[in-house]
Design goal:
Length: 713
């Protein structure tokens, strides 16, 4: 059984639709309930009866209500019963079972809420609970815990000594810490003040052998060997940080598998050395951009926690794109990158909160070019993901935005403010959370949240260098028709949610009067797609979401550079195209998993559609031009041949040596799939192709290397 929706509360957390079950080892899945839970914290299957399952549903992060609490099924997921609930703002974050008695359960409840403007990580609903009758009745067990409002609580029972229950407790005013109970939850003893960032971590794993050893998931994973009285780092010098999941081999407690923001790592010596699993395509890209390099263009993007990157769309070698051919353009979390349209060696990249650099691909030089406020003025408010655009009209011109729009005409060496503060300028601490205004003393108030009142979308018209558009995180659109000298405000669009996040604004490639805008309201608990089109520079608008799925927030819009009617949108659950300006939409999914498509780029020379996905890396549709011929009608032909783009021809190079195929008689074998036979067959191939060049010597060397006789070919 799998629970969907991440069990953390970060700004870019993915939401789900409940539980799925497989009865054939994962070959097929069916939905089995809790559709409105959105975030699942934990699943425990009864050790003696697999039809009995407990599910900790944290519940919606962005809104109240939904399926939240501890749920139990006794019929394998056909029906569910809520056995522990608190209120419409509180769910269950964690649940553990006494290994000696499956009816004994300990659960932690969590009250939390996130919106665009804030995060609150706790409240009066958070706490600890115990049941001794399989969840039929519950008792609060908060004795010894902080008297402050509590936040996220992670639990673990020591497999080595189940009399010890550990808890890592988040609390207001810095009163949280690491606690233990040795009397089955009757009371708790504070062992230390060790905590983590509760919205992202606050998970602990007890060692299966040593009752005093517990691991704490955190940016840098830590461990206690004295029951929580002190913590040390486990050692991650050769491993990515930000840890979220851990498996410890019950038969060898030095053998672990760790899930972190960098992927999957394995160690057999308790973190002295690490093996990184390199074959998982799981990179989270916020944005994607392409250049015009030749013979093959490059793809750039910004990742969650793995820098800003660039790499080739294809290569001249016979073994494909290697990891070594990718390069870092900037550090930190990566966001929007842009490339100079006239010089593919000039790359602009940024990290969170406006950390903008100009990167020279030839020299490797990186120059910080973040706009700074003049002396005596307030700091600019940059979003976590600030919008960046390079002009198509003026060489060296680029745009960047915080709460104001900036323009540079000298590649970022200097900047000019071309707008005032374009936000609503709302004090976010006056806005409601939990249906009330929450005190600044609340757990994690405003933690891990961008400043509110920032510009988050920007577009320069490809048709008119003086036509600019900007969108904010608080629902405003501004249009300038004179290069930023003045701006016209659009504060509401009929059918669009009030004060909604403007995820994308797009000025048409074909008609300067046409503007597209996408609102993303998922951080208010509304997952509907909101896309609008204006044909008169924003004076009136038409909704064009039409038949897009009801559930699937929109992140990105792109317009084909040839066919004005062909549009693409990236959503939480995939990419869609419309052949008629949004009257009808069809999903593109052959080879593309169900994944959030955060951004879209079009490589015009190649007619390639390039996607930046949040969790599965980049995807490219080679030459999508056939979509220009699609009409929303039943085809009249039984078959049709579409135009094919001109193919390139080149001589492949082989810098890594032989391409990995072996010849024997009339058959070819892939060495990578042959195990111990690979080297032997490769040597046979070498002998075959070199038989005219010192064959006897080659054969002797080959026999020494393989340790077995080789036939002379």
């Amino acid at each position: 059984m799998v629970g969907t929706g991440e069990n953390n509360n970060q700004r870019s957390v993915g939401y789900g639709d409940g539980l799925y079950k497989s009865e054939d080892g994962g070959k097929s899945w069916k939905h089995v309930g809790l559709k409105n839970s959105e975030h699942i914290g934990k699943i425990i299957v009864h050790p003696e009866n697999s039809d009995v399952v407990y599910v900790a549903a944290i519940g919606p992060l962005w809104s109240k209500g939904g399926d939240r609490g501890l749920y139990k099924t006794e019929d394998g997921g056909k029906t569910w019963k809520a056995i522990l609930t608190v209120d419409e703002h509180t769910g269950v974050n964690d649940v553990v079972m006494d290994p000696r008695s499956p009816d004994v359960l300990y659960a932690s409840t969590l009250q939390r809420r996130r919106h665009v403007y804030t995060y609150v990580g706790g409240g009066p609903g958070s706490g600890m609970h115990k049941s001794v009758d399989g969840g039929a009745t519950w008792t609060k067990i908060n004795k010894g815990l902080p008297s402050e409002e509590l936040g996220r609580i992670g639990l673990a029972i020591s497999p080595a000594n189940p009399e010890i229950i550990y808890a890592i407790v988040e609390a207001a005013n810095g009163k949280g810490g690491f606690f233990a109970s040795t009397n089955r939850g009757a009371s708790w003893e504070k062992r230390s003040s060790h905590v983590t960032s509760g919205n992202y971590y606050q998970e602990i794993i007890a060692d299966p052998v040593d009752e005093h050893t517990v691991y704490s998931m955190d940016t840098w994973m830590s461990v206690t060997h004295d029951g929580g009285r002190s913590f040390d780092l486990v050692g991650e010098d050769t491993k990515h940080v930000d840890n979220h999941a851990m498996w410890i081999n019950p038969h060898n407690n030095k053998h672990w598998i760790i899930g972190c923001d960098g992927g999957i790592y394995e160690t057999y010596d308790a973190a002295k050395t690490w093996d990184f699993k390199k074959n998982l395509p799981i990179t989270q890209f916020y944005k994607v951009a392409v250049d015009n390099d030749e013979p093959f263009y490059n793809i750039y993007g910004g990742t969650q926690d793995n820098f800003s990157l660039g790499g080739p769309s294809r290569v001249l070698t016979n073994h494909g794109i290697r990891n070594s051919e990718w390069f870092i353009t900037n550090g930190g979390d990566g966001f929007e990158s842009q490339i100079d349209p006239n010089n593919p060696n000039i790359v602009y990249a940024q990290s969170q909160y406006g950390g903008l650099v100009r990167f020279d691909k030839k020299s490797g030089e990186s120059v910080g070019i973040k706009p700074k406020p003049p002396k005596g003025e307030n700091n600019y408010r940059y979003n976590w993901d600030a919008p960046l655009a390079v002009s198509r009209h003026v060489s060296g011109r680029l745009y960047f935005a915080a709460n104001k729009v900036f323009r540079s005409d000298d590649y970022g060496n200097s900047w000019e403010e071309i707008s005032g503060d374009l936000s609503r300028q709302i004090d976010r601490n006056t806005l409601k959370v939990y249906d009330r205004v929450v005190s600044m003393d609340a757990v994690m108030k405003n933690g891990s949240t961008s400043p509110y009142g920032t510009i988050v979308a920007f577009s320069e018209s490809p048709k008119n260098k003086d036509l600019l558009a900007a969108g904010t995180d608080d629902g405003l659109i501004h249009i300038s028709e004179n290069g930023g000298n003045s701006w016209r405000k659009i504060s509401s669009i009929p059918g669009a949610p009030t004060q909604s996040y403007v995820n994308s604004i797009y000025l048409s490639r074909h008609d300067e009067n046409v503007i597209y805008v996408a609102f993303n309201h998922h951080k208010y608990g509304d997952f509907k797609p909101y896309i609008f089109k204006s044909t008169n520079k924003g004076n009136s608008w038409t909704a064009i979401a039409s038949n897009l799925p009801e559930r699937g927030s929109v992140y990105a819009i792109e317009e084909d550079h040839v066919d004005k009617d062909l549009l693409f949108v990236g959503t939480e659950f995939g990419v869609f195209f419309s052949p008629n300006q949004g009257q009808d939409w069809k999903q593109l999914k052959s080879g593309l998993p169900t994944i959030a498509v955060r951004d879209i780029a079009i490589q015009e020379r190649e007619n390639d559609l390039v996607l930046g996905t949040f969790g599965r890396g980049f995807y490219v549709m080679d030459d999508y031009s056939v979509l220009r011929n699609i009409e929303n009608a039943t085809p009249a032909e039984s078959a049709k041949i579409y135009p094919v783009r001109t193919a390139l021809m080149w001589e492949q190079s082989s810098p890594l040596g032989l391409p990995g195929k072996s010849f024997q008689g009339d058959n070819f074998y892939t060495a990578a799939n042959l195990g111990p036979e690979a080297d032997y067959l490769l040597l046979q191939r070498q002998l075959y192709f070199a038989k005219e060049e010192a064959p006897k010597e080659r054969q002797e060397v080959g026999e020494r290397r393989s340790g077995r006789p080789l036939p002379f070919l």
